[in-house]
Amino acid sequence: MRYIDEFRDPDRIRRLLDEIGRRASGRSFKLMEVCGGHTHSIYRHGLEGLLPDSVDLVHGPGCPVCVIPMGRIDDAIAIARTPGVIFTTFGDMMRVPSSTGSLLDAKAEGADVRFVYSPLDALKLARENPDRRVVFFAVGFETTAPSTAATLLRARADAVENFSIFCNHVTIIPAIKAILDSPDMRLDGFIGPGHVSTIIGLRPYDFIPERYGRPVVVAGFEPTDVLQSVLLILRQLDAGEPRVENQYGRVVRAEGNRKAMELLHRTMQLRPFFEWRGLGFINQSALALRPEFADFDAELLYDVPGVRVTDPKACQCGEVLKGVIKPWECRVFGTACTPETPIGTCMVSPEGACAAYYSYGRYSLMKRGAATEAAK
Amino acid sequence: MSGPDRSLQAQLDRMEKARQARKARFKLRDHHVTLSHGSGGKASFNLLEGLIAPAFSNPLLDAQGDSAVFSANGGSGPMVAFTTDSYVVKPLFFPGGDIGKLAIHGTINDLAVAGAEPLALSVGLILEEGLDMDVLRRVVDSMARAATEAGVEIATGDTKVVERGSADGLYVNTSGVGRVVAGVELSATRMRPGDMVLVSGYVGDHGMAVMLAREALEIEAEIVSDTAPLHGLCQAVLTAAPGTRVLKDPTRGGVATSLNELAIIAGLAIAVEEERVPVRTAVRGACEILGIDPLHIANEGKLLAVVPPSEAEDALQAMKSVPGGEDAAVIGDVREEPEAMVLLETGIGGARVLDMLVGDPLPRIC
């Protein structure tokens, strides 16, 4: 298949792995892939097992489903349970646990929860059901926020009064900064998020090499993209010149997508702080609708509990998201917390580090276990 | 060095223990039935093993075949296969088929993979008040045609009407009885390391055709359901490869879920080579867009066969000689380890665990 197969070419993969192997021999590196899409791709293609042991990939906070705190899901369920409401959400939010079950459970108990592929589908539902109130559960980074913004502007222009948005959009840069500032940080470089960067461009990452001396390579999602990015980071580290590099040039432009950014600025503003699952409160890390759009802001229109719910004690999502521990090092990984009965959000979405690890990573772990056994 | 290694091994042991415990004792934690329980994946498995199977437990049911196989006269007489299935597909009509055709083929296939020749079917219709009579006529005609083409009789039936809103147009239940060909004994417990795994053609067509027919997805692709009766194919394989261990039609949950079920029952590993699995370009493309694995998508006219290595080539040629089996391929093999797991060797030379589907295949969001 064109535009897919060339990025999965075994010969290119082998050449990339050879050079990575040469550059990484005798040392060890911890690189974080920030975006959940990368985590998914790494596992799906079995990349972790192909990389030398000296290159350790750490899975970052870039899974939009994983970083939503429990309290916000409680709020979503409260809105969904309001009589007359059709609550719309992306598919993978349906299974995320709150303190009282998931949206899928709320649906089974009678709430009208439907999954949509885009906020525009939710707006369409609102037009088709004028006697109902339709709420869209907006989640995601800068990648999905512009489509929420565009939908909001469309709703206002067409005066669709029975439509509103429960805004939970978050921004990636403050999360990366929080990780860099964390005292247990031990990362050597970052595989930068590809899709977020199509919107925000490359400049927002400049502080990472400048202030923290770590390379950033914005990467695509195919196997050769990920491996080439690992190689580019290793080359930067060898040269001792950390900088922001764009491996995903076929999609990402240095200046980003100005039109999308402009849409965001028109409709949304930074919240003073927002809670991230596992990472805690991070200043200026999330977006809320601007006051001009109060009529479309579900957070204002509905009675939401707005209570902060502590993560389950046993759950170590935070340490996983910061790359301090590997998913399998979590106390409940694979035992109490599995994709069927997730405790932490990292286990819910296929992009979540734990779910990806659980589904795909066990084999490489087992092979590593066997190799260790043989070496003894 | 021994510190971290020990912890790795300890973690590994803990995961393995948990996995084994899960296999032995399915715990149904949910308080309500959710749509995940109907997906054919892990949640369905848990519902079945945690609530339904224990209530009805008996040796015939506990064998967990696609059909129950028993002797008609209670002794060593001719063996009979018996099965039932309900159909709630939405939309009722989709490219390549409709709910009626699907219901006929599905039950025939459950008999066929038990090694049986279908003899007779029953049809139960649950109709929603207000259903367009033309819609019903089209579905019933389609069922009649499918049964005739497959050479099976619809011998008995039942019709019920429920109030508007209580059913989504119409639901169909079909049951079937078949005669098991003498000497045929199929079970995953007969699988041995070294056995080969075959699939009879392109995977993922049915599920993707239905998914795309749902209005929410505006992806234009020419993908039609593969719904088809499999008894011809099954008999051809059984004749050519009399040592066939087990046959399976990978419906809900797709090839991945079916192979996992076989691996769990056999207590063996199945290794699949991603490159060898036939997937149409259009299906692959749609899967890439939606972030779904073609191996998790339902099929309604495909056959999985596990055969001893010495009979693999004969089984493959037999499949290819039957209409609908032209694109058959050997996709993997059975191994000793890791027990009760399915491995996927990826196109680029990596390897990973191919798990059962969890819940519905919901598209990822970014």
List its traits.
heterodimer; A: 376 residues; alpha/beta; Rossmann fold; 4-stranded parallel beta sheet; 15 helices; globular; B: 366 residues; alpha+beta; 60s Ribosomal Protein L30, Chain: A; disordered N terminus
Topology of this protein?
The complex is a heterodimer of chains A (376) and B (366).
Chain A (H helix, E strand, L loop, with lengths): L9 H15 L4 E7 H9 L2 H4 L4 E8 L7 H12 L3 E5 L13 H6 L3 E4 L3 H10 L4 E8 L4 H13 L5 E7 L2 H10 L7 E4 L1 H7 L6 H6 L3 E3 L4 H17 L4 E3 L11 H10 E3 L2 E4 L3 E4 L3 E3 L8 H4 L15 H6 L30 H23 L1
Parallel strand pairs in A: 1-2, 1-7, 3-4, 3-5, 5-6, 7-8, 8-9
Antiparallel strand pairs in A: 10-13, 11-12
Helix pairs in contact in A: 1-11, 2-15, 7-12
Chain B lengths: L1 H23 L17 H15 L2 H4 L5 E4 L7 E9 L5 E2 L2 E2 H14 L3 E13 L4 H18 L2 E10 L7 E11 L15 E4 L5 H9 L17 H10 L5 E3 L5 H13 L2 E5 L7 H10 L13 E4 L4 H10 L7 E7 L6 E4 L5 E3 L13
Parallel strand pairs in B: 5-6, 10-13
Antiparallel strand pairs in B: 1-2, 2-7, 3-4, 5-7, 8-11, 8-12, 9-11, 10-12, 13-14
Helix pairs in contact in B: 4-5, 4-7, 7-10
Describe, in plain words, how this protein is organized in 3D.
The complex is a heterodimer of chains A (376) and B (366). Chain A is α/β, with parallel strands linked by helices. Chain A has helices at residues 10-24, 36-44, 47-50, 70-81, 103-108, 119-128, 145-157, 172-181, 194-200, 207-212, 223-239, 258-267, 298-301, 317-322, 353-375; strands at residues 29-35, 55-62, 85-89, 112-115, 133-140, 163-169, 189-192, 216-218, 244-246, 268-270, 273-276, 280-283, 287-289. By secondary structure, chain B is α+β, with helices and mostly antiparallel strands. Chain B has three domains: 1-62, no CATH class; 67-180, PurM-like, N-terminal domain (60s Ribosomal Protein L30, Chain: A, 2-Layer Sandwich), CATH 3.30.1330; 188-353, Phosphoribosyl-aminoimidazole Synthetase, Chain A, domain 2. Chain B has helices at residues 2-24, 42-56, 59-62, 99-112, 133-150, 205-213, 231-240, 254-266, 281-290, 312-321, and strands at 68-71, 79-87, 93-94, 97-98, 116-128, 153-162, 170-180, 196-199, 246-248, 269-273, 304-307, 329-335, 342-345, 351-353. In chain B, the strands form three sheets. In chain B, strands 9-11-8-12-10-13-14 form a seven-stranded mixed beta sheet. In chain B, strand 13 and strand 14 (351-353) form a beta hairpin. In chain B, helix 4 packs parallel to helix 7 and helix 7 (231-240) runs antiparallel to helix 10 (312-321). The longest helix of chain B is centred in the N-terminal third of the chain and has 23 residues, at 2-24. The chains are: A alpha/beta (376), B alpha+beta (366). At the A-B interface, helix 1, helix 2, helix 3, helix 5 and helix 15 of A face helix 1, helix 2, helix 9, strand 13 and strand 14 of B.
